[in-house]
């Protein structure tokens, strides 16, 4: 091989994307299935993530064998498996979030009468990890495992404000999907909102992801003042008047503050973001 050929070969290697496509596809597949609970067909997964059905079938077969996914013998649909719980358990137990939050989330759902969620940041979206339903809740908004877009949901915008600079820049550089007439699709406008959200430690969604759904979210911090999670109250828009919005904000902020205190946070410890753009286990 000539020197020139070696140089060209080296350039090609240096330009290769430092990721494994199969792993990326598996992650896309898992996110797709998580958002389509309780189950989804292989054909629909292939359509949604843009892969050939045979490729999706091979990925699913591998994940089923590892108990990450399950196949329904009745419908042949695919759903998340309990193997994911085993993988996530060390992370969640390390944060102390479920123990600290469970009773308070349930109390908040009872007091507000609405759907309440605890969500964490996965590097690009807010993911619901725990949910409680109030007496007036009419549907399971953001069921556990479901991801919420960063640019148009209360939990998403709140956790995005505390993400790493790299993640914020990446999300603002991508097209922002329009879901309703109220969805913000202008990166400049979204970017201008983040400092205020970061300062206040709360965010509001007024029909931005679904036209008939509103939400308020408040930040949970750990003992070092780092962002850990978001507590969200989700409510139908017909019950989301300005007065109701104010009341729900007060309720959700008290609950987030209580959970933060149980994690060791004391007011005045700063506005620390996720150390690596992800939920961390702590020092």
What is the count of helical runs?
10
Order of helices and strands: HHHHEEHHEEEHHHEEEH
Radius of gyration: 21 Å
Helix content: 40-55%
* Major sheet size, sense and barrel closure: 6 strands, antiparallel
For the secondary structure, the number of strands is 8
Characterize the overall form: globular
What structural category do the secondary elements indicate? alpha+beta
* Content of β-strand: 15-25%
Roughly how many Å apart are the termini?
Answer: 52 Å
Low-confidence spans: 6-10, 12-18, 274-283
Physical arrangement of strands within the biggest beta sheet: 5-4-3-8-7-6
Average pLDDT figure: 83
Q: If you had to describe this structure to a student in words, what would you say it looks like?
A:
The structure is a single chain. The protein has 283 residues and is an alpha+beta fold. The chain has ten helices and eight strands. The strands form two sheets. The protein has a six-stranded antiparallel beta sheet with strand order 5-4-3-8-7-6. Strands 1-2 form a two-stranded antiparallel sheet. A hairpin with a 6-residue loop joins strand 6 and strand 7. The termini are far apart. Mean pLDDT is 83; it is low at 6-10, 12-18 and 274-283.
